[in-house]
Amino acid sequence: MAILQILSYESCGKTALCAGIGKKLVNAGTRVGYIKPIHVTGQAKDSCADAIFINEALELGENKEQVCPIHLSQEELWSKLSEDIDGFSNTVVAACQKVLAGKDVLIIESPGSLKGDKVSGLAGSTIAEKMDTRIIMLVCYSTGFKDPEIIQSAKKFGDRLVGVVVNQVPESKLDSIQTECSDYFKSQGVNLLGVLPESRTLLGVTVGEIATALGAEIISSKDKSGELVENFMLGAMTPDQVREYYDRKKNKAVVTSTERPDMQLAALDTSTKCLVVAGKKPSTSVMVKAEDKKVPVMVVDRNIEDIVLDIEKALSKARFHNLQKLKAVSAILDSRFDYKALNTALGLPQ
User: Fold this and answer.
1) Under the phi-then-psi rule, with left for phi > 0, alpha for psi from -120 to 50, and beta for the rest, what region is 8?
2) Binning pLDDT at 50, 70 and 90, where does residue 286 land?
3) Measured between alpha carbons, how far is residue 129 from residues 34, 93, 133, 158, 222 in Å?
4) pLDDT tens profile 306-326
C-alpha cells in the first residue's frame, strides 16, 4: 500500500497529471484510489467537477463526497490550519484512509499551489506528514524552472520527493529543454520525472462550454456540444485568402458576423468544431451545410469584440473533465514520463 501526493509549484495541470498516472496504474491492474481532500472554493462555493470526473472516468467506484470531502474558502482553510490544526488534520486523514481502504495506491491531489500561497503550502505539507506520502511536484515551464524557490520548495520535502515534472513546454523547445532540465535538476540533486509538451487539447473547452460562456443557444447539431475546441479564429479575411487562413488551425471555433456567409461557408470546409455568428441566424445555405457537416452553430446578439473576449476567458478557465483530454494526457505521459522511477518509489512491479 502506497500513497502518492501530487502538488504544484504553480497551477499548471495538476489534475491532469493525477488522472493520467491513475489511468496508467489502473490499466496495469493496480487497485487505485483518488482523493482531493481539500477543495479551496471561490465565492460561489463551486463543486469539484474535476475530482468527480476522475472518479468516474477511472471507474474507481467512490461517491462524490468521498473523492472531494472538504470544501473551504481560502480564509476558512487558514482558520482551520492555524486554530485547530490537529483536529483538522484528523478529519483529512480519516477522509484519505476511507478511500485508501482496499487499494494498492492512493493518489492525493493537494489543494492550490505553492508559489505565493502559504495556506495551500501548509495544507500540502500537513497532508504529506500525516499520511506519510511520496510526492511529485509539478512545475510550469513558463515560471522558469531555474527559479531558486522551486528547488527550495522541492528540497523541503526531503526523501518524500519522488521528483519533479516540468509541464507545458512549447513543442519547438521540447528536446532542448529536456536536456537542459535533466542537467539542471541533476546538479541540484533533484530527480526529473518528465518534461511534458504544451497540448492544445488539454487547454481546450467544449462547444457547450463556449455556448454557456456566451449565453448562446446552439441551433444546429446540439448533439456535438461535447466536441473539444482547441483554437478560435475570426472570419475576417478576404475571399482569396480565406481557405489558406482557416487551414492554419484545427479543431477551432470560428467567429463571424451575420453579413459574411462566404466566410462561414469557407470555415465549414475546414477543421471547424463550431460556428459563432454575431448578429442574426445565418443564411439557409450556411445552415444546410452546417447540418451536413455536423457542425454546431450558435448565434450571439453582441459585437465580435465582446464575443472574442468571453471565449478567451472560457479558454483561460479550461477544466480537465473530458475523456478526450484524459486520452491526450495518457499519450503524453506514456512517451515523456518516467513510470519506472515512479513504480520503484511506490514499490510497484515494473
Assistant:
1) beta
2) very high
3) 18, 10, 7, 11, 48
4) 999 999 888 888 888 889 999
Cβ atoms 51, 67 nearer than 8 A: yes
Three-class SS state of 197: strand
d(CA 22, CA 106): 9
- For residue 236, the model assigns a pLDDT of 61
> What pLDDT, on the 0 to 100 scale, is given for residue 321?
85
HSE-CB at 147 with a 13 A cutoff on CA atoms is 15
pLDDT, the chain, mean: 92
Which CATH architecture group holds 2-199+320-346? 3-Layer(aba) Sandwich (3.40)
pLDDT band at 46, cuts 50/70/90?
Answer: low
Number of other residues whose CB lies within 10 A of the CB of residue 340: 10
107: which 3 cell numbers? 493518489
Locate 326 and state its grid cell: 484524459
- Segment 158-190, tens digit of pLDDT: 999 999 999 999 999 999 999 999 999 999 999
Structural domain boundaries in the chain: 2-199+320-346, 205-316
Number of H helices, E strands in the chain: 15, 15
Element spanning 300, H or E: strand 297-300
User: Any idea which of 118-122, 140-144, 200-204 has the lowest mean pLDDT?
Assistant: 140-144
Cβ distance 160 to 136 under 8 Å?
no
Q: What is the pTM of this model?
A: 0.90
Contact predicate 250/321, CB 8 Å:
no
In angstroms and rounded to an integer, the radius of gyration of the C-alpha atoms of the chain is 22
DSSP string, 6-47: EEESSSSSHHHHHHHHHHHHHHTT--EEEE--EEE--TT---
Contact 105, 32 (CB under 8 A): yes
Q: Are 103 and 346 in contact (CB under 8 A)?
A: no
Query: Which CATH number describes the domain made up of 205-316?
Result: 3.40.1390.20
